[in-house]
Amino acid sequence: MRLFFFFLYFLCCATGGKAADTAGIFETLFYYYAYRIELSAFPDQGDRMIAWGCVPATGTVCTFYEFVQAVRDPGTTAIDIDAANTILPPVEDADTTFADMRFVGTYELASLYRDAGRLNHVKLLGTITNRVQEAREQITVDSELLANAKKGLELAQAMRWTENLVKTQASFNERYPGVILYETEEKLDSVTIKVIDWVKTAEVQASRSNSKATALQTRYKKWGSTTPGSEYRHHQNILRAFAINRNVLNAVPSCRA
User: Fold this and answer.
1) Which of 56, 79, 111, 137 could form a disulfide with 253, with the two C-beta atoms 3.0–4.6 Å apart?
2) Which N-terminal stretch is annotated as signal sequence (predicted)?
3) What is the pLDDT of residues 182-206, one digit of tens each?
């Protein structure tokens, strides 16, 4: 089984990557648990792809802090805190737990994934998800590791929506002052994603003015499809990527992103 999704917007290729600010720690935790899952199936360093250069000071598994140190952008820092010196970092409330670490998810692609080359953010997510699936085909993966990887993606998706709705609202109000954007949900297989509800947004604004809801909806949708709304579309594509990869991880090991 293979899931296909065609994106209208692709990130520029680069050697580094950055997740949304607060969402970044949850995305990093997904990468960390993907690393742990891969390591359990492919223990030899030469076979590893995720954080392939990470060598633990003791034992055979890098702690979360060691992982971050191995994959972060060299131009950034991550503060060593007790909470990060573990191989089972908590995913729930990670933005609070690891706040003093001051790491927001800026990483070097080549360090995060061997031969990442010119992968963009969306392709990187899919590639790492597929590596987890390869590991699942080799062994029975520890259920806690897999659950934590899934939870990292789920919370990264939720936090990215929350963060970027604020930015989209501000950008939208530059063109349409005072108009409140409302949200709704769409289903992608077993996972939901949030999107702007242009119908409700137009209807509410029409009730406050002399304009027709259909006319307002046309204007607002046009904003979303043109240059001013490009950031919204960009982040929606990433949200869909999160959802698609969550669906893959919920499926049989042979499923690929």
Assistant:
1) 137
2) 1-19
3) 999 999 999 999 999 999 999 999 9
117: Cα separation from own chain's centroid: 19
- Locate tokens 């999704």: which residue? 5
Q: Which residues of 222-254 are buried (b: 16+ CB within 10 A; e: fewer)?
A: ebbeeeebeebebbbbbbbbbbbbbbbbebebe
CA–CA distances in Å: residue 180 to residues 1, 163, 202, 227: 41, 16, 9, 20
* pLDDT of 7 strictly over 80: no
Q: How far apart are CA 107 and CA 20, in angstroms?
A: 12
Number of Cβ within a 10 Å radius of residue 169: 14
Q: Return d(Cα 93, Cα 129) in angstroms, integer.
A: 23
Of 153, 170, 190, the position where a domain reaches its end is 153
- Mark whether 148 and 164 lie in a shared domain: no
Amino acid at 91: V
Does a structural domain hold residue 240? no
* Model confidence pLDDT, tens digit, residues 85-138: 999 999 999 999 999 999 978 889 999 999 887 788 889 999 999 999 999 999
Token pair in block for residue 119: 């992968």
**Model pTM?**
0.88
